[in-house]
Amino acid sequence: xxxxxxxxxxxxxxxxxxxxxxxxxxxxxxxxxxxxxxxxxxxxxxxxxxxxxxxxxxxxxxxxxxxxxxxxxxxxxxxxxxxxxxxxxxxxxxxxxxxxxxxxxxxxxxxxxxxxxxxxxxxxxxxxxxxxxxxxxxxxxxxxxxxxxxxxxxxxxxxxxxxxxxxxxxxxxxxxxxxxxxxxxxxxxxxxxxxxxxxxxxxxxxxxxxxxxxxxxxxxxxxxxxxxxxxxxxxxxxxxxxxxxxxxxxxxxxxxxxxxxxxxxxxxxxxxxxxxxxxxxxxxxxxxxxxxxxxx
Length: 296
Ligand SMILES: NC(=O)c1ccc[n+]([C@@H]2O[C@H](COP(=O)([O-])OP(=O)(O)OC[C@H]3O[C@@H](n4cnc5c(N)ncnc54)[C@H](OP(=O)(O)O)[C@@H]3O)[C@@H](O)[C@H]2O)c1
Description:
By secondary structure, the protein is an alpha/beta fold. It has 2 domains: 140 residues, NAD(P)-binding Rossmann-like Domain (Rossmann fold, 3-Layer(aba) Sandwich); 102 residues, UDP-galactose 4-epimerase, domain 1 (Alpha-Beta Complex), CATH 3.90.25. Helix content is 45%, strand content 14%. The chain contains 13 helices and 9 strands. The chain has a 7-stranded parallel sheet with strand order 3-2-1-4-5-6-8, sandwiched between helices. Strands 7-9 form a two-stranded parallel ribbon. Strand 1, helix 1 and strand 2 form a beta-alpha-beta unit. The protein is globular and about 55 Å long. 44% of the residues are buried. Bound molecules: NADP nicotinamide-adenine-dinucleotide phosphate. NADP nicotinamide-adenine-dinucleotide phosphate binds next to helix 1. The site of NADP nicotinamide-adenine-dinucleotide phosphate (NAP) has 25 residues, from helix 1.
């Protein structure tokens, strides 16, 4: 039997889609989970659960044994760099052939303007380069722009209640990346015979709230308005949804730099590697509006 493709963070937004992408390609897939019962309904039945936990290093070492290609993703967390560097070392020691990491947005890792989490991703990327340069696994980093389904994730709920939606990005334009495209790039980087060492995933066009409101107005056949939130208002909303202090600090840093326009750059990496255009904001809004009543 060929060596399995191991996915860490396999029940997460991106990881669960990577599991499905790999499985759809007919590849043998294992997913690291803390709770196999929670994972089972998310995955195709052929996917093998491997019980593990970043805070239990021996479980990561054990999970890497016999693996061909490993995908590393973990949540935004104060221990993210430590967890991921430990996983990189475990993969290298186990003789894994290739490591693919879900990294940070490129603009969070720019010297002099790194966010806390961007610096953690940069630290893991450096650890990956070091193991590769010393003859270890080939290492590939996927750098996604802000997730479309993250920042625009509440639009459906807001439009069910009224004609206004609100975002914390102010007047900035952002080339949002659809999580399905991010997962497709990750799975491609794991499965392809050769792939660039860095793949930046963005949407095909940068959009601001006003343009999104215009698209929604057209789709729903009634005026839809954009209300830019101050950062403290966006954080109050995140806190009410249960975000912890580290996440609130992370989101504050991200929104602060996004509002400077850093997220508007469009990358052509996705199209050149995957051979198709990335999904658009229009595609996503069409899905959202079909659930809130569609065109009237
Ligand atoms: N949001 C954005 O716009 C954006 C943009 C660029 C990059 N990123 C990066 O994307 C990553 C997050 O991806 P995501 O949203 O797909 O993650 P996510 O949905 O938060 O999923 C996190 C995964 O990690 C697992 N996990 C959590 N704690 C664990 C532990 N102690 N041991 C083992 N597994 C654990 C979770 O498993 P359980 O089901 O057991 O909890 C889950 O599978 C971050 O590194 C972030 O910096 C995000």
